[in-house]
Structures are given as C-alpha cells and as structure tokens.
TrEMBL record:
Essential for recycling GMP and indirectly, cGMP. The keyword RNA-binding does not apply. SMART domains: GuKc. PANTHER family: GUANYLATE KINASE (PTHR23117:SF13), GUANYLATE KINASE-RELATED (PTHR23117). Its EC number is 2.7.4.8. ATP binds at G18, P19, S20, G21, V22, G23, K24, G25. It catalyses: GMP + ATP = GDP + ADP. GO terms for molecular function: ATP binding; GMP kinase activity. It is found in: Cytoplasm. Keywords: ATP-binding, Cytoplasm, Kinase, Nucleotide-binding, Transferase. This is Guanylate kinase. Belongs to the guanylate kinase family. Residues 11-189 form the Guanylate kinase-like domain. It comes from Geodermatophilus nigrescens.
Length: 201
C-alpha cells in the first residue's frame, strides 16, 4: 500500500477475524505502526481491562447496562458474546469513515464477522489463521493472563472458528507478523475485483 496519502483507495469495509490467540491484535498493531493512515474501529466490550490496556485505544470499556443501551438504540454494527463477555462495533464511526471515501478495518470475532456479512455483503472478510494447531495452543498457553479452564474453553471455540475459515473471502496465515501485516494492507487497498474468492463461494 503506498504511503502517499494522495493515492486513492476504495471506501471498503474490511473485517479481520480468526481464532483467539492467532495474533489478530499483534498483526493490527504492526499495520498501524507501519501504515498509520490505516483506520481501525475501536470496539466496545464488557470485558475487564487487562494490564496495559487503555480505554478508548484498545477498547471502549463499558458495563452491561451501557452495552444494553447501545443494542437498544441500534448503535452497534455487530455484537457478540465471547468467553462470557460481550464485544461490539460502534456503527457511527465506521459509517463516518466510509463516508469520507476511505477504507475502514474491523478486528472482530467470528460471530460479529457473520453479522457484518449479513448487514454489509460488500464487506471484505479476511481470516487470520495460525501456521498450525500446535502453534495456536502454544500461543494461548503463553498468554499467562487466563486460567487453564478459560484456555481450554478458548481452544474449543478456536477449533470451531478454524472450521469456518471457508466462509471468508481471504485467508492470511500468520507465520510472520510483518508479512501478514503487509498482506492485510494490500487487501485493504486492492480493488474489489482483485479479491480472492473463498472456498464457500
């Protein structure tokens, strides 16, 4: 993706999803570091803040009542419950971004990606996959922030998510963060006609 801000890019919504522990946040952070012009939606969540996380940067942290209000007012493009917590994408910032003629990137879970596909069929869905199942297990175990029970629950969910990879337009393997970040940025900038057709199509 050229770093020249004058280069035209399509106003397309791109969704990045994949199993827990695959490195979605790491890849997105690398994209933002190398290509700061890439706009990423900040999700809302009822999950407790982890050490080092900043409200409004990593997530908008809200309580259950505020999340209920956003749902009732149709303020979320998508939302899902995952591992006992709820996550959602505020709709207004995404619509405002696309209205300027620039692309927008969402990093969300599988349930949310399916909702976006239903509500915005023109969106590009990208699945981030691990190099292997063993590597995914290692990454989840290495987090250190969750109990073994939570890790096992996440692994069970991750297996179901991996099985859904065929629903996505493109699969990117996260075997190298820099390479995966470059591939994601190229997908953000590519015309719709250059999209890779997924196995489900």
């Amino acid at each position: 993706m050229p770093t020249d801000h004058r280069s035209p890019v399509p106003a397309r919504l791109t969704v990045l999803s994949g199993p827990s522990g695959v490195g979605k946040g790491t890849v997105v952070a690398e994209v933002r570091r190398r290509y700061p012009e890439v706009w990423l939606s900040v999700s809302v969540t009822t999950r407790a803040r982890r050490p080092g996380e900043v409200d409004g940067v990593h997530y908008h942290f809200v309580d259950g009542a505020e999340f209920d209000r956003l749902i009732a007012e149709d303020g979320l493009l998508e939302w899902a419950e995952y591992a006992g917590n709820r996550y959602g994408t505020p709709a207004a910032p995404v619509r405002e971004r696309l209205a300027t003629g620039a692309p927008a990137l969402l990093e969300i879970e599988l349930q949310g990606a399916r909702q976006v596909r239903a509500r915005a069929p023109e969106a590009q869905l990208v699945f981030l996959a691990p190099p292997s199942w063993g590597e995914l297990e290692r990454r989840l175990a290495g987090r250190g922030s969750e109990t073994r029970d939570v890790q096992e629950r996440r692994l069970a969910i991750a297996q179901a998510e991996l099985d859904a990879a065929g629903e996505f337009d493109v699969v990117v393997v996260n075997d190298d963060v820099a390479r995966a970040a470059d591939e994601l940025v190229s997908l953000l900038a590519a015309p719709s006609s250059e999209r890779t057709v997924g196995a489900s199509e």
